[in-house]
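Archive transcription. Copying these from loose printouts into the bound notebook so they stop getting lost. Printout 1 of 2:
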Amino acid sequence: MSTTESITPDVVDATPSPQPPRRRSDSGLQALAMRLHFYAGVFVAPFILIAAVTGALYAISPTLERIVSHDLLTVEAGDARRPLSEQVDAAVATRPELALVAVAPAQEADDTTRVIFDDPSLSDERRAVFVDPYTARPVGESVIYGSSGALPMRTWIDRLHRDLHLGETGRLYSELAASWLWIIGLAGLVLWVRRVRSRRARNSAGWLLAADRSRPGRLRNMNWHGAIGIWVLPLLLLLSVTGMTWSAYAGANIADLRTQLSWTTPSVSTALPGAESPAPAPTGDHHGGHAAETRPADPTTQIASLDRVYDAARETGVTQAVEITVPADADQAFLVKERRMSGTYTVDAVAVDGASGSVTAQLDYADWPLMAKMTNWGIQFHMGLMFGLLNQLLLLAAMIGLIVVIVLGYRMWWQRRPVRAGSRFVPGRAPRRGALRKSSWLVAVPLLAAALVVGWFAPLVGLSLLAFLVIDVVAGLFRNTVEVEDAPVT
């Protein structure tokens, strides 16, 4: 072999395979998605990050509650339980000054029975005395909150996630996060699909779920950002939608829409035959409270009726964990309604006449409207109560994934910054301008119409989107001014 041959490298044809030219509408859609993803990511991501951190804690709060309040919630299982009326009598004896409003009988073998009172000294909470069902002895008491009966620790975490303990003002943060989460996620999905298809030249959907670890620096972070985002996106979309139902402004619009489409949660009438129908009982959710009611001074008659009411409900098919609402007036029936508990997928309810034990009204979960069922399931999943510990771990993993995605996003923005002498803290550059100009009217017009509809339905999205537009215009004018001043004089 000659010297020339030994030092001459093999010639490899590095000419890239020809790619089909991008259509203008595709390029414009990608540019719009990039700009929207960037601005929302930079300015809204801090709120989403807070929601993710508090949401991770909220996701496991039911399990934390079982651990912290073990002595209140559980007892040693015995041979036979005492009658429900006897358990309630024992609880009333400890709080005779309070009005009895409801009873949640023990469901599992080691559960305690909750006897619930209306306490005028509380606002949204009620007071519960926890009773050992085998001995009919109270084991302690606590305030509880909402239809799920959350105890103080879970309630504190709930409010931290909901409004950072800042009241109605704090709710704006969670609404902004929930309202933008699905938009940022879908825009990121568009960008990731386009990138994988164009850069990796792969047609398999599996490549969307895997990060290209061979890429260095910013590209490596981008690959992990996109791959992890794809994994958590389905859960984030569900959490975003359910989170918006509890928001102040978007939530009110969602409630109006559900009413107009007959998607509201049905309720059971507790009026006895021949009596005037009372107002429907509130459906409640994990942020719901209760309304103070006037109760009879002597609840002896209601307590004596509890055993026959409970037996009648179970014979009807309401066999899951329930809360029995004690009527405030003699012309009302007892309401027996299944609670939102781990592993309970229905909310069957019956109204029972306390005097005779006959069922006066019944509402099976199977008769709920489909969208009402889906809303209830979404709420249970959001609360970590759909299928127990697995549900909570799934939510925790999604929140950790979201936190990683946000951190990587800011890391990429930092790596995108221009490197100048003496300017180490210059922020990263924004994507190129002119996204709308690159889009055909077939893409631009529907997107603008969608933005108007979303902005009206979710006002915080509309206002923040308008703010992004103003910032973008000002930044563009400033950049043009700088470029003109720096231009060489000819």
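Printout 2 of 2:
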Amino acid sequence: MKKLIFSLMLMFTTLQIFAQDNGVEMADQMRSNGKIYVVVGCIVVILVGLLVYLFSLDKRLKKLEKDN
């Protein structure tokens, strides 16, 4: 019984996914204006900043563990 209910729930969630509209007007408009590259650039800068911060934090933690 649990398997039947679970499979029905999965079926209904996939039906909702297929019922959605795939056209994203905002992304198409930003791509045509060239602003999408600004958005992608900002995301890349933020991710690179987070990675640099995490690596520097990891380096400091290794140094503290080595000293102890």
